[in-house]
């Protein structure tokens, strides 16, 4: 995935520390409202089962997951908590990485197996499996990389980095067809979902233990390692940072115009869903880009983005709202 670079719109802008808060400095109650838990899903339960388990453990009203894992699949399952469920789709659209065991139905030459798998790197047309959560129609998805780790008998162990919505089970069966021997997915572990890795994930039991410890002792140390600010899920999302004075208007649905922008990433495309952030890094809102990063450089008065969903409490920056907030063109 291409690295994001920041482009400055204003040379200097300062934040008022009387308003808002650095995401990692939030109180536990605020993290439970605006947080993410990265679960290491175990074999057996569905993604929905895991959602319900964590929701009950943390005593939450709402919990959402960012990319379904089948019951037999293990690994990284990011969960969004309460208000943060509004951003679940931003995480689910990010790339995934898997370790997979493909079982061949016949003994095959190793060179042929490697060639067959490597031919899938690039854009692949897939028909979702019969048992899937989406409509069965042909879709193009990208395979960024495949690395074969070991071939032992009929079992092929490999790592794959893919676009969101790519079906690893289908990759195995399609590879079997190319080899004319048949193949199936024997085991699958998701080792990365968007910015979250397996090393950063926690089991349901660990989450329960940390929360119970917090309830009994009010010791936050372990629970803070598990509940992360929702902003951690935005690493790969196109972003725009705005000044303090614009935030109240944006939280009330006023579109984003150039004077409010401090800096932005270079990967914004027209029609993209992007994240609007404060100077402190707080997630203000999800917006739909009306222009690309290249166009933002050139404009002064045109609408840059339309607000789609507000995540920040509307009154967080009310005390320093822009004096021209009623006029959209001056936001």
Overview of this structure, please?
- The chain has 331 residues and is of the alpha+beta class.
- The protein has three domains: 6-23 and 238-330, Roll (Archaeosine Trna-guanine Transglycosylase, Chain: A, domain 4); 34-92 and 196-231, 2-Layer Sandwich (Pseudouridine synthase); 96-193, Alpha-Beta Plaits, CATH 3.30.70.
- It has nine helices and 16 strands.
- It has helices at residues 28-33, 47-57, 88-92, 110-118, 168-179, 204-217, 221-226, 244-251, 293-298; strands spanning 6-8, 35-41, 63-65, 74-81, 96-104, 122-126, 139-152, 155-162, 183-193, 196-197, 227-229, 239-242, 261-265, 273-277, 283-289, 305-310.
- The strands form two sheets. Strands 2, 3, 4, 5, 6, 7, 8, 9, 10 and 11 form a ten-stranded mixed sheet that branches. A six-stranded mixed sheet has the order 1-13-12-14-15-16.
- α2 packs parallel to α6.
- The chain is globular, with a radius of gyration of 22 Å.
- 38% of the residues are buried.
- Mean pLDDT is 92; it is low at 323-331.
The level of helicity is 10-25%
Mean pLDDT: 92
CATH architecture of the largest domain: Roll
Strand content: 25-35%
Order of helices and strands: EHEHEEHEHEEEHEEHHEEHEEEHE
Q: Categorize the overall geometry.
A: globular
Distance from N terminus to C terminus (CA atoms, Å) equals: 33 Å
Structural class category: alpha+beta
> How many β-strand runs?
16
Question: Domains counted in the coordinates: how many?
Answer: 3
CATH level 3 topology of the largest domain: Archaeosine Trna-guanine Transglycosylase, Chain: A, domain 4
Low-confidence stretches: 323-331
Please, what is the CATH homologous superfamily of the largest domain?
A: PUA domain
Q: How many alpha or pi helices?
A: 9
Q: Give the CATH level 1 class of the largest domain.
A: Mainly Beta
Q: Using the CA coordinates, give the radius of gyration.
A: 22 Å
Strand count, sense and closure of the main sheet? 10 strands, mixed
């Amino acid at each position: 995935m291409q690295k994001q670079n920041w482009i400055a719109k204003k040379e200097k802008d300062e934040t008022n520390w009387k308003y808002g808060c650095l995401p990692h400095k939030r109180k536990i109650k605020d993290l439970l409202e605006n947080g993410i838990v990265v679960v290491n899903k175990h074999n057996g339960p569905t993604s929905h089962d895991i959602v319900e388990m964590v929701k009950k453990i943390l005593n939450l009203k709402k919990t959402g997951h960012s990319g379904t894992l089948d019951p037999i699949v293990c690994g990284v399952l990011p969960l969004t908590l309460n208000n943060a469920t509004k951003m679940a789709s931003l995480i689910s659209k990010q790339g995934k990485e898997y370790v997979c065991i493909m079982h061949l139905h016949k003994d095959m030459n190793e060179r042929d197996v490697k060639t067959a798998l490597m031919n899938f790197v690039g854009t692949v047309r897939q028909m979702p499996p019969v048992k899937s959560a989406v409509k069965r129609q042909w879709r193009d998805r990208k395979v960024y990389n495949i690395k074969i780790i070991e071939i032992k008998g009929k079992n092929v162990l490999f790592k794959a980095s893919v676009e969101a919505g790519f079906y690893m089970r289908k990759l195995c069966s399609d590879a079997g067809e190319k080899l004319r021997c048949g193949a199936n997915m024997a085991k699958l572990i998701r080792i990365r979902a968007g910015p979250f890795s397996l090393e950063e994930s926690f089991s349901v039991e660990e989450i329960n233990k940390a929360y119970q410890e917090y309830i009994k002792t009010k010791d936050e140390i372990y629970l803070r390692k598990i509940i992360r600010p929702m902003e951690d899920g935005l690493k790969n999302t196109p972003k725009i940072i705005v000044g303090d004075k614009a935030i109240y208007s944006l939280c009330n649905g006023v579109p984003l115009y150039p004077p409010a922008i401090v800096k932005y990433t270079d990967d914004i495309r027209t029609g993209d869903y992007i994240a609007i952030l404060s100077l402190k890094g707080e997630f203000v809102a999800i917006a739909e880009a009306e222009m690309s990063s290249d166009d933002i450089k050139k404009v002064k008065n045109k609408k840059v983005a339309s607000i789609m969903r507000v995540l920040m409490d509307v009154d967080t920056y009310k005390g320093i709202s822009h004096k021209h907030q009623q006029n959209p063109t001056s936001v």
